[in-house]
Amino acid sequence: MSKGQNMNQKIPVKDVTPVQKVTPQDKLTKPDYSARNRIYVRAVQGTFENIRRFGGLIFLSVFAIIPWLQYQGQQAVLINLAEQRFNIFMVTLWPQDLTILAYSLIVAAFGLFFVTTFAGRVWCGFMCPQTTWTFIYIWFEEKIEGARNKRMKLDQRKMDADKFIRKSLKHFAWVAVALLTSLTFVGYFTPINELFINFFTLDTGFWVAFWVLFFTFCTYANAGYMREVMCTHMCPYARFQSAMFDKDTYTVAYDAQRGEQRGPRARKLTQEDVKAKGLGDCIDCNLCVQVCPTGIDIRNGLQYECINCGACVDACNGVMEKMGYEKNLISFTSEHELKGGTTKIFRAKLLGYAAVLLVMTSLLIFDIVSRVPLEVDIIRDRNSLFRETNQGLIENVYTLKILNKSQQDRSYIINVKGLVDPSYIGDSEVMVQGGEVFTLPISVAVDPNNLEIGTQKIFFNVRTNDDPDNVVETEEPSTFIFTGF
Ligand code: SF4
Ligand code: SF4
To answer: In 70, 153, 270, 373, which residue has its Cα 20 to 30 A from 412's Cα atom?
Structure first.
């Protein structure tokens, strides 16, 4: 065969992609999940479910109650974006308090690293809002449309009156929860009393209404439809959490040594009979898969989709109890324990995270406690370096911006330091409202005989003078310029 023939010859291509036919019956019995299949989560009862419900109840209560709390006649916790301040009871944080935000984020990150190294993704399974709201939505689904099998059959059925009523009720409940969630969330950013009244009397401004409807939609779509897709495809934490895992991390795992060979068996068989048949403790009932909110089979080993919710542990423990077998075929355990060893709690990585957490928490507390609720900005007049007064003094002009970072109105006195016998021209005592900035034009004049040619340091001392038991003081440097006549 010549070279030209070789170049032109086409290699026949045959499509060998396996074709998988899914019948309606398969949908009911086999795949509980796929990229396109909805997961029908089965309700489960047990210790971890109780912990999640209890934890979820506390979390929800805190979330719902906080914006309604009042402190000295104002909303106690309010993030005022328009005025760039964040009220938390007696403390008001400003953009200048960036270090507090930075320390808080670092503490939160290392808290998460510490917990993940110790107990895997328990945050995801027990406290994450995505999980909490998903379980609330599943609860409504269960109450209105029935248990898992009923829901699957209902979805297969053509629309009839009963289906229409159940679906409408479910969506009404979902939207109501989403709307309440959204109003509460927006209530952290705008006074919540007015928000509720104005929203239900159709009297809100455009942007407030927009954000309420936007977050309502997000909650409804996330908890109602996105669910596990959020955890498995969109949450970045799912991707990097494995970096924190080690062989001593407690995580949900299936004891394959004890469970395999899996298979159904009569309940009356003794464990000796079961062993004689070559069977392990897993009766292959599939319950652990049916209760899993992310639709995985934990028997296939540790998977990044697993959010450590413990639902499969509860389900399997229930089965083991009924079978008269020992519990914890699926359990929160470490790889070392699974292999017959013991879990090492105090290990370098965990202690390292704990140490950083401790240091950063201390820094955060110190930063909050030592924070001065007063800020002074000094701007020199840029039009002239200095000028000579009628009395022959050298004068520099400044603008003082006094920010009262507290929530109370305060009176301040201003002093100048750092020069010989300076004359202060302007208001030396001002009243500044809580959370307000006061702009004060002033000038400082000095006898040229007391000045050096060039630039000299000058300090503006600003101090409260209305409450001797609660004195707040700050001193800001600036420059006094005299370049000669
Ligand atoms: S619930 Fe337990 S017994 Fe049932 S399939 Fe899962 S691991 Fe096996
Ligand atoms: S495998 Fe078990 S612990 Fe992991 S997400 Fe599924 S039910 Fe929850």
So the answer is: 70
**What's the CA-to-centroid distance between 266 and ligand 2, angstroms?**
27
- pLDDT tens digits, 222-262: 999 988 888 888 888 877 777 888 899 999 999 999 999 89
CATH number at residue 378: 2.60.40.10
Whether the predicted pLDDT of 9 surpasses 80: no
β-pairing, 374-380 with 251-254?
A: unpaired
Q: Considering the entire predicted model, what is its pTM? A: 0.76
Cβ of 298 closer than 6 Å to ligand 2, yes or no, is yes
425 contacts 443 by C-beta, under 8 angstroms? yes
Does residue 450 belong to any structural domain of this protein?
A: yes
Site to probe by mutation for ligand 2, drawn from 39, 245, 288, 296 as the one with most ligand atoms within 8 Å of Cβ, is 296
Structure tokens at 180: 């309440």
Among 252, 312, 319, 321, the mutation site with the greatest number of ligand 1 atoms within 8 A of its Cβ is: 319
CA 290 from chain centre, in angstroms, equals: 28
Task: Yes or no: say if 208 and 167 are a contact pair by the CB < 8 Å rule.
Answer: no
Cα separation of 316 and 32, whole Å? 18
CB of 74 closer than 8 Å to CB of 184: no
Total domains in the fold of the chain: 3
Residue position matching structure tokens 């790889």? 335
Shared-domain flag, residues 257 and 381: no
- Cα 324 to chain centroid distance, Å, stands at 42
Examine the domain organization and report whether 182 and 55 are in the same domain: yes
pLDDT one-digit tens code per residue, 111-125: 999 999 999 888 888
Which of these, 100, 105, 103, 66, lies nearest to 85 by C-alpha position? 100
Kindly state whether residue 78 falls inside one of the protein's structural domains: no
